[in-house]
Amino acid sequence: MALNHTRLIPYCEVLKEKTDMVENHELRKAGLKVTLPRVKILQMLDNTEDRHMSAEDVYRSLMEAGDDVGLATVYRVLTQFETAGLVVRHNFDGGHAVFELADGEHHDHMVCVDTGEVIEFFDEKIERRQMEIVEEHGYEMVDHILVLYVKNKK
Ligand SMILES: [Zn+2]
């Protein structure tokens, strides 16, 4: 029991902040135990401007923020998040897998082949047209992924 108590101390510190409470709730809801690396990584994904981050991006940002989480841990936690449905993994061509929080809103992606930048978009007409094409073939849509590979017009 003493062992458990000492292990709980960092988690208690984490619990002090309100935003952390939200992250903790998200983790528990996903059936994951609240651990410091999981909280830090979830916060990073939640607070970043860049909605699509590779494991290396997450690792680097945590380091810059002074959080010492190893790259192997970042990989492992992101995979656990993916399994739990907290994040979506994209394997865009020609780059590392990127992860984004699963917020339930459907959108498609453009990837810049020069910079690797990921741009989100949603187009009513494209969505509708895809449904029609599927139906014309006698099927119903289960899911779709649309990725446009683009480059900056010079
Ligand atoms: Zn996205």
Describe the secondary-structure layout.
Elements: H1 2-15, H2 18-29, H3 36-47, E1 53-54, H4 55-64, H5 71-84, E2 87-90, E3 98-101, E4 108-112, E5 118-121, H6 124-136, E6 147-150
Parallel strand pairs: 4-6
Antiparallel strand pairs: 1-3, 2-3, 4-5
Helix pairs in contact: 2-3, 4-5
The protein binds zinc ion.
The site of zinc ion has 6 residues, from loops.
Number of beta-strand segments: 6
Instruction: Work out the helix count.
Output: 6
- End-to-end Cα distance, whole Å, is 64 Å
Which residues sit in consecutive blocks of at least 5 with pLDDT less than 50? Answer: 1-12
Name the helicity range.
40-55%
Strand order of the largest sheet: 1-3-2
- Elements, N to C (H/E): HHHEHHEEEEHE
Judging by the overall fold, what is the CATH architecture of the largest domain?
Answer: Orthogonal Bundle
CATH level-3 fold name of the largest domain: Arc Repressor Mutant, subunit A
CATH superfamily of the largest domain: Winged helix-like DNA-binding domain superfamily/Winged helix DNA-binding domain
> In CATH, what is the class of the largest domain?
Mainly Alpha
List keywords for this structure.
three-stranded antiparallel beta sheet, single chain, binds zinc ion, disordered N terminus, alpha+beta, Dna Ligase, domain 1, 15% strand, globular, three-stranded mixed beta sheet, Arc Repressor Mutant, subunit A, 49% helix, 154 residues
